[in-house]
Automatic annotation (TrEMBL):
Keyword vocabulary terms for this entry: Transferase
Keyword Transferase: yes
Glycosyltransferase 2-like domain ranges (all copies): 5-163
Organism: Geobacillus sp. (strain WCH70)
Record keyword Transferase present: yes
CDD domains for this protein: DPM_DPG-synthase_like (cd04179)
Protein name: Glycosyl transferase family 2
Source lineage: Bacteria, Bacillati, Bacillota, Bacilli, Bacillales
GO molecular function: transferase activity
PANTHER family from the UniProt entry: UNDECAPRENYL-PHOSPHATE 4-DEOXY-4-FORMAMIDO-L-ARABINOSE TRANSFERASE-RELATED (PTHR48090)
């Protein structure tokens, strides 16, 4: 199998079992859960169910967890790697669409989008405004039009994996990595996917963190576009 599904997980005891079981039932791909220093029962659930996982001794954040997954995928010889969130928002039924698109189009990254076509997604006005803001920021910085730049549901090829093993943003990486890849000439494409509401737990992004997110990503992306 040349495809690896990477599932970053931090304190996802409410959802991790269902997420992995749904993936196993839906797709034939290999997977690895990156237990990102969880302090709840996430590790116990992974061990009890004999799921495939790597255990990080401390919490590195989404960037560190995903970079760990990409390094694992590259070392094991996988040609493609897919991020699948542990909270149940990403529907494994769309994995086949992502795989087919990256193979047929020759893209380096394919993003599962809630907005490139009409979907059932209903987000808050504030969240939609934030996504629209990053759409224009990316277009300004790199000239690419990505309707759902904050979507973490994405597949990358081996060339992009190499990029990510060298550098991956520590937190809120979705927008920044698109800008970086676009600047280097990588081909990025979007396709329609459906996304669910969180199946359990709480989002780590509060209104205050959202403001920090927008400021941090804007500043970092502007700096990296210059140097």
């Amino acid at each position: 199998m040349d495809i690896l599904v990477i599932i970053p997980a931090y304190n996802e005891e409410a959802t991790i079992r269902n997420t992995v079981m749904n993936l196993i039932k839906t797709c034939p791909y290999d997977y690895i859960v990156i237990n990102d220093g969880s302090t709840d029962r996430t590790r116990d659930i992974l061990e009890k169910n004999h799921f495939h996982y790597l255990d990080l001794p401390v919490n590195l954040g989404i960037g560190g967890a995903m970079q760990t997954g990409y390094r694992y995928a590259l070392r094991k010889g996988y040609q493609y790697a897919i991020q699948l969130d542990a909270d149940g928002q990403h529907d494994p039924k769309d994995l086949e669409k992502l795989v087919a698109e990256i193979k047929q189009s020759g893209s380096d990254m394919v993003i599962g989008s809630r907005f490139v076509e009409k979907t059932n997604y209903k987000g808050s006005p504030f969240r939609r405004m934030g996504i629209l803001y990053f759409y224009y920021l990316l277009y300004f910085l790199s000239g690419v039009k990505i309707t759902d730049p904050t979507s973490g549901y994405r597949i990358v090829n081996r060339n992009v994996m190499r990029e990510f093993t060298n550098y991956y943003p520590v937190d809120y990486p979705e927008v920044e990595v698109i800008a970086k890849l676009a600047k280097k000439g990588y081909k990025i494409k979007e396709i329609k996917v459906e996304m669910n509401a969180r199946q359990g737990g709480r989002s780590s992004i509060t209104p205050l963190k959202s403001l920090y997110y927008m400021t941090k990503v804007t500043f970092t992306s502007l700096i990296r576009s210059i140097f």
